[in-house]
Specification:
The chain has one domain. Helices cover 44% and strands 14% of the residues. It has 2 helices and 2 strands, in the order αββα. Strands 1-2 form a two-stranded antiparallel sheet. The longest helix has 19 residues. It is elongated and about 40 Å long. It binds zinc ion. The site of zinc ion has 8 residues, from helix 2.
């Protein structure tokens, strides 16, 4: 018997998205300051989830954005 699990499934996808995104920048450090970027997520669904990056300087944010955008 099938049950509706759309809510659970989409929640799991959000967690996967967060893990995958975090993994992409896990080893990233600023070449100038040797700091790791910080990652925050806002939004409960994949459709409106928002990734916020913070770090020591614009250079690190730019590098982190490139890593996250890469597939
Ligand atoms: Zn820096």
């Amino acid at each position: 018997m099938l049950q509706a699990t759309a809510g659970v499934g989409s929640q799991q996808r959000v967690e996967e998205f967060k893990e995958n995104t975090a993994r992409k920048i896990r080893d990233l450090r600023c070449p100038d300051h040797h700091q790791a970027p910080r990652l925050r997520f806002q939004g409960a669904t994949l459709r409106d989830i928002n990734v916020q990056l913070s770090g020591c300087c614009e250079k690190l944010i730019g590098l982190a954005n490139q890593k996250i955008a890469a597939r």
